[in-house]
# Entry
Amino acid sequence: MSAGLWLALAGGLLGATMAQAEGVVAPSDVVFEDGAVAVSLTGAPGNPENGPDIINKGSGNCIACHQVSALPDLAFQGEIGPPLDGVGDRWSEAQLRGIVANAKMMFDESMMPAFYKTEGFIRLGDEFTGKAHAGEVTPILTAEQVEDVVAYLLTLKD
Amino acid sequence: MFQGKGALALAIGGALSLIAAGSVVADEPAKLVVNGEIEMVTETEAPAHLDAFDTIYSGWTFRTPETRMLQMDDFDNPAMVFVDQAAEAWDTVDGSEGKSCASCHGDVAEGMAGVRAVYPKWNEAAGKVRTLVQQVNDCRETRMGAEPWKYDGGKMVAMESLISVQSRGMPVNVAIDGPAQSTWEQGKDLYYTRFGQLELSCANCHENNYGTMIRADHLSQGQINGFPVYRLKNTKLNTAHARFKGCVRDTRAETFNPGSPEFVALELYVASRGNGLSVEAPSVRN
# Structure
């Protein structure tokens, strides 16, 4: 199969399966300004009600490194990053979007993983299997999940 | 010595550890003294090559009092059963040459004293750094005419533990200069490489964040002076390479295999970060 045909096919598949279409900014197209991302990755506001699920393990697993007092039901909250209490006061929506999408743009060399990034990894694995990754790379969170968690973070006021 | 005690431990170890878990919670053991006689250095000045910290700590110091207690007496240490099995293997003839380990090395307590403390180590004939496991398999193949054991299989990890026991309490002292230096540098590079989709290096967790909680885990400095370790979680002995593999996998990366040149180099480097801590193997972890 020629490369051109393969690309065309892949593009078609992507459009069909991920509804990448209308308004969604692809991970490699995200524009950072001083670590912040001005426009919504989906073109629409996020739903803060999905925030707690994304923060939990099995999804964004933010809780592995951060404490969130508003979510006492989430067990074993980590201490690596600062508690997320009050982040809605400390950061703007654009800054929070930038931090979640790729914290290294805001904090040099940050330990915090980039949740909306698909390139530049060393020995990328297939999830947590320890095997090499094959095929298309998906970011840890979808554009919609990034927007939802950002909307939730904005509700965390002191 | 521990021999014989191990069989007892098999019979009553479970009961003892239950008692230990129930009764000593308030009584935090601050010093690790094994069998009331082997005094372990679990905290000491960092080796000169390591700029990251002033003080290095054994993984023992980060575990719960209950888990720490299990390592203080060979009767309670669940790993000792496997050490006893390896003691039998030590004396057992295997392979085409009609030899056992004892045929060349004599009594394990004499023949293997101090060995663990200096491995991984440069091997002149092989022209490379060898781990203890690789040395055992070299003996099996070239001297005994026996099949090599699986790198991190049960027989090998038990033998590695038996050999380590003969150095308990001695300071880890691996050489990082001379012919070993390039391997050591390679291991150091790996230690600071941010692998996988989470882009995390060993240093992110074990150098910059030891002492803090990552989810339910209390992060240690990731030292290997206690390896092989018996983990209560999988109820068996675990090699350092298996632990490395798990940690790399958890970064959502493609791991390296136990025994790979990368993990041999990493083992040398990580061991050198613990130069000065006591050989503790086999230790106990959650």
Chain B touches chain A through 25 residues (CB under 8 Å). The CA atoms of residues 118 and 174 of chain B lie 4 Å apart. The mean pLDDT of chain B is 91. The radius of gyration of chain B is 18 Å.
